[in-house]
Amino acid sequence: MKSEIISVGSELLLGNTVNTNASFLSRKLAELGIDVFYHTVVGDNVYRLKTITKIALDRSDLIIYTGGLGPTEDDLTKEVVSETLGVDLELDNVHLAKIKKYFEKRNMKMTDNNIKQAYIIKDSKVLNNDIGTAPGVFFNWKDKKIILLPGPPTEMKTMFNNYTAPLLKQDSIIKSKTIRTMGIGESSLEELIKDLVIEQSNPTIATYAKQGQVEIQVTGKGKNEKEIDLIIDPLVKEIDKRLGEYIYSYNNESIEEVFFKQLKKNHMTVAFCESCTGGLVSSRFTAIPGASQVFERGIVTYTNNSKIEELNVKESTLKTYGAVSEETAKEMSIGLLNKTNVDMALSITGIAGPTGGTKDKPVGLVYIGLASKDKSYVIKNIFTGSRQDIQNKAANKVFVEGRKYLLEINN
Prior knowledge:
- This protein has 15 helices and 17 strands.
- The chain has helices at residues 10-13, 20-31, 46-59, 77-85, 93-105, 153-168, 186-192, 194-198, 225-243, 255-266, 280-286, 304-311, 315-321, 326-339, 387-410, and strands spanning 2-8, 35-42, 62-66, 89-91, 119-121, 125-127, 136-141, 144-149, 173-182, 204-210, 213-222, 247-249, 270-274, 295-300, 344-350, 365-372, 376-382.
- The longest helix has 24 residues, at 387-410.
- It is elongated and about 80 Å long.
- It comes from Anaerosalibacter bizertensis.
């Protein structure tokens, strides 16, 4: 079954509202074994909505609309769809009574334009709105299924989960396994699994680059999860064989969660000292429930004076090499290790931009230091992107290096 999602609303095109409805519906349809072929966003315009409806009817078996079911003049979805299909709208007195009750319960005056919401496409199934006033519509037209859902995300999600999904259940389902990697670019990764991508049918392989890491999604279709696992698992094992050193998670875990679990497994503690990330590393790590079991402290030493006072970085080091240098990163991590009673101290210093870079020290230059009771070293990195991108990529690398060290001492 080819499905299409049409999101209606000029606010989506203007960028005033993020279209979370489409991503939610895509995930839910995938769980039901329904392939989504098209996403379309269209403004509150009769001609354009009618045009995209005709296109969708020509290419898709299931069409889901979100938005445009409200009481105002620019809420046009029902009217345009019914006109395009050549099917009348009719007043549903049951839902009109529900709408009246909704307003009475809240001691609000119901304006006449709200009656518009009680009109539905003739011979369609009405989908209850447990939160708002606009009912949804499920309509079989020729060999097509057409669904109209409200735009507000809470209303749409509730209506889909409670009333729409049960009507769409099929004999097959889709299941995905996500493999998360770091330390390799998307193009290099794809070269290593190129033949697997070319040969794909069921399961399929897709790669996505984000914030200095690459995710591989392996998706299979079958009658049940056990059947899907039988076709997915051999492919996942083959990918692991080729990319093992770069893979950090198979369970949708973040890199900081994986690092946290490895620390617990090793019965070790950690502390962070940050400059260019301004506390981001500690913030992300302490967002993990139970982080206090392994996390001793986090220090932000943004200025040279704070590095000297808090971490015993030598003034001569800062004058000779600068705050962003291998030497400073090393003294930061060693200073933190000496100041605390942790097993591992990680430091980070760099230039997040957008200004402050030079020819010798460009924006994106970040040094990460690691110190333990038996060794210390520094990793030089060059990250690209916005200030926020560089900070997030740098934080990711801190967790990567920490985990890498833990795995090495286990071998």
